Amino acid sequence: MESSLATPPPLARHIRDLRQSRNLTLADLAAASTISRASLSRIENGEVSPTADTLAKLSTALRLPISHLISPLESRFQALVPRDAQPVYHDASHGFHRRNVSPPSADLQIELVEATLEPDAHISYDHPSVPGHEHHFVLLEGTLHITVDGGTHSLGPGDCLRYRLHGVSEFRAGPDGARYLLALA
Question: What's the pLDDT tens digit per position in 138-147?
Fold first, then answer.
């Protein structure tokens, strides 16, 4: 019986391509991201899917917004992005779903992300991938407590939190979960 290697999923290939385009070895990226070389290899081979924490560490090491890891930068943007063409990321271990409504583009500055946190879900990031990155955060449903650079904000539906991210950030959904839009500039 013949065995064949499955083609890595697009996220795995994209992470590998980003690493290689920067002339980094797996060991280099492991050192910069604090993710083991073995784990990086498994991610790039499509054997495991990276968690939100892992994506945050990779984006910091590569100095790219997480959205650039999830979907490749469009060299030429299309005006209409149908829902089924919007890249989706799911981290079951953290109850986190993220859809790049308006994927990153070389020609446009703003990106739009829709995300959902399951009830009582919690995610945190030790460092911003791009220090000073501008965020405009609008809660659509549920409740959410966001800690940004040491200050905690409690949001209800329709509330907007605007900030430039320089340090630690943390997101805690309430008992009904949370659905939000995030504009990144």
Answer: 999 999 999 9
